[in-house]
Amino acid sequence: MESSGVLNWADVPDSATPLYNFTANVSVPGPNIRLEDLKFGTRVPYKAGENLYNSREVGVSSSFDVKPGQQVVVGKTNATGKDGALILVLSARIVE
Asked: How many CB atoms lie within 10 A of CB 56?
């Protein structure tokens, strides 16, 4: 599976809004859901001047099993260099 889009990021103008990309190989080898080679990446904006924004690339990569309906903290990365962090939390369910 693959998904991409726009993240809701506080305190940045629309011109600096970060985009994300999410990919994973998904399988259901039994009662659990397997996410293999999961990759989540984005370019996080930070203020570089009064009206100037730069960005840095951050991301999380992992492989894991999840029970249907269970929430899993996949990873955490320092996103802004300050007190901020990007935390990826997923929940999965089987849809028939």
From this structure: 13
How many folded domains does the chain comprise? 1
* Domain contains 96: no
Report if residue 65 sits inside a domain.
Answer: yes
95/81 Cα distance (integer angstroms) = 39
User: Is 80's pLDDT higher than 70?
Assistant: no
Q: Which residues contact 54 (CB under 8 A, 6 or more apart)?
A: 45, 46, 48
- Domain range for residue 48? 2-91
Q: Is 43 helix (H, G, I), strand (E, B) or coil?
A: strand
The predicted-structure confidence for 12-62, as pLDDT tens digits, reads as follows 888 888 899 999 999 998 889 999 999 999 988 888 888 888 888 999 999
For the record, the structure tokens of 60 come out as 């999380």
- Strand intervals (E) in the chain: 2-6, 19-27, 33-47, 53-66, 71-78, 85-91
21 falls within a domain: yes
